[in-house]
């Protein structure tokens, strides 16, 4: 029996998380696995119900689970609360930090059926399979932040980018290990021409590289990297980078796959791992059955593989997604001429049918 904590959150979160649950239930029936789900409040939904975006009870549910599936948090309704009450800074970041989830794996894989769904030319993206590892509990997100009033009027803001050797080392090591299991190419993304944190990052990468002579390493500056991802994304295999660079580059990379609604993620490093789509709460389409559930469903597949070691079951979900896309079913974000437009729920139903 596997215990899964569900944190639907806000916006499209409560629409997409139940789709992953339905797919997991179908997989459970087919392969005779028992999944037990416990739902907890997070984000704006938790703030509205309890006055805090990350209730202690939610943390308990997470710590007692074997894995966590999260939808998304945030939305215009909560954007102007004090920082510690806002869904992003008051819930999502502390959750990642408290659970020790320092490595965020974001695979950008172009599904063959979607090679011409991208806004880039098909030959640039088709066959793309890159793994971006984003450091998740350090950097600008977690450094000291403060504001001061200036005597002559106006304000001064301080936002610090902090990393320790140990924090960099553990995530970079994961990058080398991952590269070793894939095509043995690691690109370390930094801004070493300007940032001191990037200089330390690069030194550590260089030092660890000696332990991985079989991995072809290159350092790339983040601005060039953004350009290269659009110019020729297939030059990359595994990428590793700090928190903020990884946040930005993965939204960019998601569009190569056709839509941000396609990209799953796994956050690892602590006792319990967290799985979530890389997209947000999409307030513009929430509550309309328009959201693409595939990123969340593929996150559930990552959970089966990484947290539970259920490779066959994970692959079954991925193949079902492939089949449904091959059959021509599309949510609005990946819609193409001549294809069959479906909503969030209907897409899931097709994926479940394809499992059988
Ligand atoms: P977003 O990812 O929510 O949306 C960006 C665009 O992509 C929107 O047009 C949206 O409709 C579309 N989109 C996103 N997911 C989709 C899906 N599954 N199917 C179809 N289309 C999809 O980013 P945003 O608009 O910048 O942020 C909205 C809110 O979400 C903000 O409050 C932000 O802080 C929050 N956010 C939360 C998370 C998270 O919880 N992990 C991640 C990113 C953003
Ligand atoms: C993500 C999101 C979050 C991040 C926000 C909502 C704090 O954009 O998961 O990519 O920047 O990490
Ligand atoms: Mn993001």
Structure, described:
The protein is of the alpha/beta class. It folds into 2 domains: 190 residues, Isopropylmalate Dehydrogenase (3-Layer(aba) Sandwich), CATH 3.40.718; 153 residues, Isopropylmalate Dehydrogenase (3-Layer(aba) Sandwich), CATH 3.40.718. The chain contains 12 helices and 14 strands. The strands form 3 sheets. Strands 2-1-3-12-11-4-5-10-8-9 form a 10-stranded mixed beta sheet, sandwiched between helices. A two-stranded antiparallel ribbon has the order 6-7. Helix 10 runs antiparallel to helix 11. The longest helix has 19 residues. It is globular, with a radius of gyration of 20 Å. The two termini are 22 Å apart. It binds nicotinamide-adenine-dinucleotide, 3-isopropylmalic acid and manganese (II) ion. 3-isopropylmalic acid binds next to helix 4. It comes from Desulfotomaculum nigrificans (strain DSM 14880 / VKM B-2319 / CO-1-SRB). This is 3-isopropylmalate dehydrogenase. Its main location: cytoplasm.
In short:
This protein is 41% helix and 19% strand. The chain has helices spanning 13-31, 44-50, 56-63, 87-98, 122-125, 165-181, 196-209, 222-231, 243-256, 294-306, 311-327, 344-355, and strands spanning 2-9, 35-39, 67-72, 103-109, 129-135, 145-149, 155-159, 185-190, 216-221, 238-241, 266-268, 273-275, 329-330, 340-341. The structure holds nicotinamide-adenine-dinucleotide, 3-isopropylmalic acid and manganese (II) ion.
Question: Would you spell out the secondary-structure blueprint of this structure?
Answer:
Elements lengths: L1 E8 L3 H19 L3 E5 L4 H7 L5 H8 L3 E6 L14 H12 L4 E7 L12 H4 L3 E7 L9 E5 L5 E5 L5 H17 L3 E6 L5 H14 L6 E6 H10 L6 E4 L1 H14 L9 E3 L4 E3 L18 H13 L4 H17 L1 E2 L9 E2 L2 H12 L1
Parallel strand pairs: 1-2, 1-3, 3-12, 5-10, 8-9, 8-10, 13-14
Antiparallel strand pairs: 4-5, 4-11, 6-7, 11-12
Bound molecules: nicotinamide-adenine-dinucleotide, 3-isopropylmalic acid and manganese (II) ion (MN).
Manganese (II) ion (MN) binds next to helix 9.
């Amino acid at each position: 029996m596997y215990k899964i904590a569900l944190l639907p959150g806000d916006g499209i979160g409560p629409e997409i998380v139940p789709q992953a649950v339905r797919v997991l239930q179908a997989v459970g029936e087919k392969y005779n696995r028992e999944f037990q789900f416990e739902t907890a409040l997070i984000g704006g939904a938790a703030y509205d119900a309890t006055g805090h975006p990350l209730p202690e009870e939610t943390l308990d549910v997470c710590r007692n689970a074997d894995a966590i599936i999260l939808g998304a948090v945030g939305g215009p309704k909560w954007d102007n609360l004090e920082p510690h009450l806002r869904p992003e800074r008051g819930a999502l970041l502390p959750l990642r930090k408290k659970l020790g989830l320092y490595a965020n794996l974001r695979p950008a894989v172009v599904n063959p059926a979607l090679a011409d769904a991208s806004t880039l030319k098909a030959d640039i993206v088709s066959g793309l399979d890159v793994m971006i590892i984003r450091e998740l509990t350090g950097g600008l997100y977690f450094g000291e932040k403060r504001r001061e009033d200036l005597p002559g009027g106006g304000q001064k803001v301080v936002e610090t980018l902090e990393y320790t050797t140990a924090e960099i080392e553990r995530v970079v090591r994961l990058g080398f290990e991952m590269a070793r299991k894939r095509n043995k190419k690691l690109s370390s993304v930094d801004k070493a021409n300007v940032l001191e944190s990037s200089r330390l990052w690069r030194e550590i990468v260089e030092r660890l590289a000696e332990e991985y002579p079989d991995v072809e390493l290159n350092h790339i500056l983040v601005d060039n990297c953004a350009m290269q991802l659009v110019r020729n994304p297939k030059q990359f295999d595994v990428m590793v980078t700090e928190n903020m660079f990884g946040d930005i580059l993965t939204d960019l990379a998601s569009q190569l796959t056709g839509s941000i609604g396609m990209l799953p993620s796994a956050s690892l490093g602590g006792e319990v791992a967290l799985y979530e789509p890389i997209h947000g709460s999409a307030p513009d389409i929430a509550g309309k059955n328009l959201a693409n559930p595939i990123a969340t469903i593929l996150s559930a597949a990552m959970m089966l593989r990484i947290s539970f070691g259920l490779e066959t079951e994970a692959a079954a979900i991925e193949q079902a997604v492939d089949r449904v896309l091959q059959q021509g079913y599309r949510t609005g974000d990946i819609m193409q001429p001549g294809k069959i437009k479906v909503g969030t729920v209907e897409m899931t139903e097709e994926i479940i049918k394809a499992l059988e």
